[in-house]
Design brief:
This protein has about 230 residues and is mainly alpha-helical. The chain has one domain. Helices cover about 65% and strands about 0% of the residues. It is built from 8 helices and no strands. The radius of gyration is 19 Å and the shape is globular.
Length: about 230
């Protein structure tokens, strides 16, 4: 399935940007205030910011494509980057709902349902839906699922360095999440957890790759309304 309507694609991408920005602002303390930049240290907020940045570019590029090529058709914008951003926000979705909720985790004191659901559920689901609805299928390369681990890998380095520089999270912890808290579970525990999480998301990535290849074999998923191929790699 691939909707070849750039107006709808542009509207959806713009909605992701606006809802994502609203979710981040809610977690920073807006509109009640005072604003706090501390949540920016968490993977959830950083992954949402990457989503906002990518989809702002994609929406602008989609609008430009409408202007010069019309509303009919579909174009994939930087599939490798989009894949990394998308997997990054899927990590947010799955880790939160399957690991952190049970551990009574909260980024901010007195977080609301709106602040949690927006960044942990609504934005991730919208990003996945954008790929399912508007992207050409068959564009994912065999090495891409490995590249998609870039965002979680970056954050792991960020969190470990921040801990050494004096970052402090809830209850005085130096690490944002218990499964990478070397003070709590030791470095061996951190390494084991990182390997397990990376392996799980690598498997997920290759399942997506297999699905993308299968869908890409359907002629309608790779051709425009006149049968032309419409893939743009930036």
């Amino acid at each position: 399935m691939c909707i070849k309507n750039r107006y709808l694609s542009c509207i959806w991408k713009t909605a992701i940007v606006l809802i994502g920005a609203w979710g981040v602002l809610l977690n920073l303390g807006f509109p009640e205030g005072p604003l706090s930049l501390h949540p920016l240290l968490y993977y959830t907020i950083q992954s949402n910011l990457f989503v906002i940045a990518y989809f702002a570019f994609a929406a602008a590029a989609c609008a430009r494509e409408i202007r010069f090529s019309g509303s009919r058709g579909t174009v994939n914008y930087s599939p490798a980057i989009k894949g990394a951003v998308s997997m990054g926000i899927v990590v947010t979705l799955l880790i939160y709902w399957f690991v952190l909720v049970g551990a009574d985790f909260a980024m901010i004191p007195n977080g609301t349902a709106a602040s949690n659901l927006t960044v942990h559920l609504i934005v991730p689901v919208m990003v996945v839906a954008d790929w399912a609805l508007f992207d050409e299928k068959g564009c994912i390369r065999v090495a891409d699922p490995v590249r998609w681990l870039a965002l979680p890998a970056y954050y792991l380095v960020f969190a470990l360095v921040a801990a050494q520089l004096g970052a402090v999270y809830r209850a005085g912890a130096r690490y944002p999440y218990f499964f990478i808290d070397a003070d709590l579970i030791g470095w061996t525990g951190v390494v084991v957890n990182v390997v397990l999480v990376a392996a799980a998301f690598l498997v997920l990535g290759y399942l997506v790759f297999a699905l993308d290849r299968a869908l890409g074999r359907m002629p309608s998923s790779r051709r425009g309304p006149l049968g032309e191929a419409e893939s743009l790699r930036l």
